[in-house]
Every structure is written in structure tokens, then in C-alpha cells.
């Protein structure tokens, strides 16, 4: 399971011109589900995302996690993160989870996240437009 996390000043997700989720300061989490993923991996990844220290403390060091920074999380499904890109000029998605498994684990991740912190979400498998102001920029690839 993969999370591409970006520290943002604000972020929103829209579908057909309608905003379906938005946050102010926090993390945009683009979530990719691979074929061997399960709820245990989803839980471990969520724990890491929420504990990852990417926000500045009073000394300017990245020493605070999103909860300590009083931030929020915007979770968006992104199956292209599971792409195999080592060969050729066209990505292969053979490492990606089936749509059923991916949706189940995306929902699980999002629901568990919302139990711990203010969370907004995109819509699984929808054609979405993401707007954000990346703070830093600060972007990390987390994989379990």
C-alpha cells in the first residue's frame, strides 16, 4: 500500500465542478492499493501517515505530526501509484489491486482516519480534480 503525502496549506477535491472534500492546513494523502494489500497493511500505513513528523515545531524543525499541528487529512484514491514503470514507455498496472479490493481498503483507510482526525475524502474511482497549495513543498512517498 502506498501513500504519497503532501503537506498543504489547503487542498480540495472536486467532481464535475462540485467540491466534495476540502481541508485547510494538513496532509493531502494520495492512496494507492496494491494486489497483496490487506487491512493490516492499511492500518500500519495509516498509523505511519498520522505519526509522520512533517510539520515545523517552534524551532522550525520538522518535529510535529499532523495531529500535533492541528491539521486535517484529505484522502484521495490514486491507482496510478501502483504502476510498474521500470520497462518501456507505458505504465503497467499489474501490481494494482482489483477494483473491489482497492475500494474496500480505501474505505477502510478513510474511515479509520476519520475516527482519529478531521478527514475529507474524494470518491473512489471518480474522475477528480485536485487543487492544493503545497507547503514547502514537502512531499513523501510512504509504502508498506
TrEMBL record:
Entry EC no(s): 3.1.1.96, 3.1.1.-
Motif (Gly-cisPro motif, important for rejection of L-amino acids): 136-137
MF annotations from Gene Ontology: D-tyrosyl-tRNA(Tyr) deacylase activity; Gly-tRNA(Ala) deacylase activity; Ser(Gly)-tRNA(Ala) hydrolase activity; tRNA binding
Record's subcellular location: Cytoplasm
Domain of life where this protein originates: Bacteria
Catalytic activity as recorded in UniProt: glycyl-tRNA(Ala) + H2O = tRNA(Ala) + glycine + H(+); a D-aminoacyl-tRNA + H2O = a tRNA + a D-alpha-amino acid + H(+)
GO cellular component: cytoplasm
GO terms classed as biological process: D-amino acid catabolic process
Family annotation (Pfam families): Tyr_Deacylase (PF02580)
Keywords, sorted A to Z: Cytoplasm, Hydrolase, RNA-binding, tRNA-binding
SUPFAM superfamilies: DTD-like
Known function: An aminoacyl-tRNA editing enzyme that deacylates mischarged D-aminoacyl-tRNAs. Also deacylates mischarged glycyl-tRNA(Ala), protecting cells against glycine mischarging by AlaRS. Acts via tRNA-based rather than protein-based catalysis; rejects L-amino acids rather than detecting D-amino acids in the active site. By recycling D-aminoacyl-tRNA to D-amino acids and free tRNA molecules, this enzyme counteracts the toxicity associated with the formation of D-aminoacyl-tRNA entities in vivo and helps enforce protein L-homochirality.
Domain notes: A Gly-cisPro motif from one monomer fits into the active site of the other monomer to allow specific chiral rejection of L-amino acids.
Family stated for the protein in its record: Belongs to the DTD family.
Complex formation: Homodimer.
UniProt-listed NCBIfam families: D-aminoacyl-tRNA deacylase
Protein name: D-aminoacyl-tRNA deacylase
Native source species: Testudinibacter aquarius
Gene (UniProt): dtd
Amino acid at each position: 500500500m502506498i501513500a504519497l503525502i503532501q503537506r498543504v496549506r489547503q487542498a480540495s477535491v472536486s467532481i464535475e465542478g462540485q467540491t466534495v472534500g476540502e481541508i485547510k492546513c494538513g496532509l493531502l494523502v494520495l492512496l494507492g492499493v496494491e494486489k497483496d494489500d490487506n487491512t493490516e497493511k492499511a492500518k500500519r500505513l495509516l498509523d505511519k501517515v498520522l505519526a509522520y513528523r512533517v510539520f515545523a515545531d517552534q524551532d522550525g524543525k520538522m518535529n510535529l505530526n499532523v495531529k500535533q499541528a492541528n491539521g486535517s487529512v484529505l484522502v484521495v484514491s490514486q491507482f496510478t501509484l501502483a504502476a510498474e514503470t521500470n520497462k518501456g514507455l507505458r505504465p503497467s498496472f499489474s501490481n494494482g489491486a482489483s477494483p473491489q479490493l482497492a475500494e474496500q481498503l480505501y474505505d477502510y483507510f478513510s474511515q479509520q482516519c476519520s475516527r482519529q482526525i478531521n478527514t475529507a475524502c474524494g470518491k473512489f474511482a471518480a474522475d477528480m480534480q485536485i487543487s492544493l497549495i503545497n507547503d514547502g513543498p514537502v512531499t513523501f512517498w510512504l509504502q508498506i
